[in-house]
Design goal:
Trna Endonuclease, Chain: A, domain 1, globular, 2 helices
């Protein structure tokens, strides 16, 4: 992972903790792919993708969570839930982080997509 991505994930974890989320896993990997952050928001398991950009040459950060990435997240989330051996309410969020000249803007898209 590059420095911008790592910094973005660290910002995301701190942001979610301040909102009262409990972080369960970071960079949870399976053969299907990876989910950046798995957290609990009350009783809901939140699978979170973090996208960080220093400019918008390639679009707004959240635009990088395309159909293929959503499918991978779905499969990884199913693996995680199977490991827990029970059904839990869950959702998919996206944290879109822009860093420009040291200024950080975090946009939290709750329940960003359905799979």
């Amino acid at each position: 992972m590059n420095t911008v991505g790592k910094d973005g994930e660290d910002l995301a974890v701190n942001f979610l903790k301040k909102k009262g989320y409990k972080i369960i896993e970071r960079n949870f990997r399976t053969s299907f792919g990876e989910i950046d952050i798995i957290a609990k928001d009350g009783e809901i398991i939140v699978f979170t993708e973090v996208k960080t950009r220093t400019d918008e040459t390639f679009g707004h950060p959240f635009e990088a969570v395309h159909r293929k990435k959503r499918e991978k997240m779905r499969n990884v989330a199913l693996c995680f839930l199977k490991m827990k051996k029970r059904e839990l309410p869950s959702r998919f969020d996206v944290l879109s982080i822009s860093i420009d000249n040291g200024e950080k803007n975090i946009e939290h898209i709750i329940d960003a997509f359905e799979v």
